[in-house]
């Protein structure tokens, strides 16, 4: 869990929760797809390792940004989705996407993602 005594300001806390190379991307894919399984996330983010994906998912679940539902079946089925805290990040993530599109256009950077 997050130790609130470590942060000097709310921005620092926010970056801790969603910062890094993978967390924002995981949140964005969950925002787009609503529910994803582990294998689907690995296909959507081919450069992430299983270990890193598991670590990021655990941290975000522990911090209340995503939920994990385990279905008791063989083989086990696990699905991830946004919680209300994760869903509340939607406007922030959308703004980041829009900023990235403008920056890419102004700097002649090609974006491979086709959903925006």
Question: Can I get a quick summary?
Answer:
This protein is an alpha+beta fold.
Task: Break the fold down into its secondary structure elements and pairings.
Blueprint: H1 10-18, H2 23-33, E1 35-37, H3 38-44, H4 50-62, E2 66-71, E3 77-82, H5 84-87, H6 90-106
Antiparallel strand pairs: 1-3, 2-3
Structure commentary:
The protein starts with 9 loop residues before the first helix and ends in a 10-residue tail after the last helix. By secondary structure, the protein is of the alpha+beta class. It is built from 6 helices and 3 strands; from the N terminus they run ααβααββαα. The protein is 53% helix and 13% strand. It has helices at 10-18, 23-33, 38-44, 50-62, 84-87, 90-106; strands spanning 35-37, 66-71, 77-82.
Catalogue the unreliable spans. Answer: none
> Radius of gyration over alpha carbons?
15 Å
Instruction: Characterize the biggest β-sheet.
Output: 3 strands, antiparallel
Strand content: 5-15%
Topology pattern, helix = H, strand = E: HHEHHEEHH
């Amino acid at each position: 869990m997050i130790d609130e005594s470590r942060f000097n300001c709310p921005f620092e806390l926010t970056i801790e929760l969603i910062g890094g190379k993978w967390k924002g991307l995981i949140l964005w894919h969950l925002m787009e797809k609503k529910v994803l399984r582990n294998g689907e996330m690995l296909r959507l983010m081919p450069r992430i390792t299983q270990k890193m994906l598991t670590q990021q998912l655990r941290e975000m679940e522990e911090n209340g940004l995503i939920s994990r539902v385990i279905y008791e079946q063989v083989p086990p089925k696990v699905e991830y989705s946004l919680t209300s805290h994760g869903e509340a990040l939607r406007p922030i993530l959308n703004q980041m996407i829009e900023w990235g599109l403008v920056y890419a256009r102004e700097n002649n950077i090609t974006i491979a993602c086709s959903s925006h």
